[in-house]
Amino acid sequence: MTGVQIAEWSLFVLLAAALAAVAAVAVRRYALERRGGAVECYLRPYGGGPWRIGLGRYGSGALHWYRVLSLWPRPAATLPRRGLVVVGRRSPDTGDLAELTPDMAVVQLGWTGPDGADPEEPGYELAMGRAALTGFLSWLESMPPGTHWQE
Prior knowledge:
This protein is of the alpha+beta class. It contains two helices and seven strands, in the order αβββββββα.
């Protein structure tokens, strides 16, 4: 083989690997959305850091958040429903608008203490469209019939 043929085959292999990775991410996203209860949202730890786009899946006991651009099958973050409260709500500020759109809402989330006290500081910020926020708040305030919290 000549050097040009080796370069051509190397380029072909790299292109095939990139296409396989894109296809795998698309199939993973389809599988997450197909089961229902998923909403596109952004998540970051409270206090800063970059916003990460992902899919939040509602469960009876937690919100499981999966990164969109990942092949990892497990959630990147799990926000337990028990004690989860909205500490604050705001529109994206000028620093957020580099990653978010102006029509989104940002909620700060925290957990009540063991004694039931309100959280002193949020743990996460979650950004989503206003319609998705309505669904999130409904999920947060409700509990499916027959569900019992596990201690």
